[in-house]
Amino acid sequence: MQQKQLKLNSKLSIPSTAFLSRFHKILHSSIISYYEIMLSKGMKVIFTGIVLVV
Questions:
Q1: Highest taxon of the source (predicted)?
Q2: Do residues 9 and 2 lie in contact, with contact meaning Cβ atoms separated by under 8 Å?
């Protein structure tokens, strides 16, 4: 298991920055889309919750 991990790390070490930036972009866009979906679905619930709290 550790040998595989070491080989994987040595392979990833060269294009790690490009991979990380791409992964960050994907992660960022997925988080944004997730929040957009959650906002569109739960806007009324959140709004009523805020109104109830205030």
A1: Eukaryota
A2: no
pLDDT digits over 1-37, tens only? 556 655 655 555 556 677 778 888 888 888 888 888 8
- 6 phi and psi, to 5 degrees? -65, -45
pTM above 0.70, yes or no: no
Whole-angstrom Cα distance, residue 33 to residue 38?
9
d(CA 46, CA 54): 12
- Residue 43 CB-half CA count within 13 A: 6
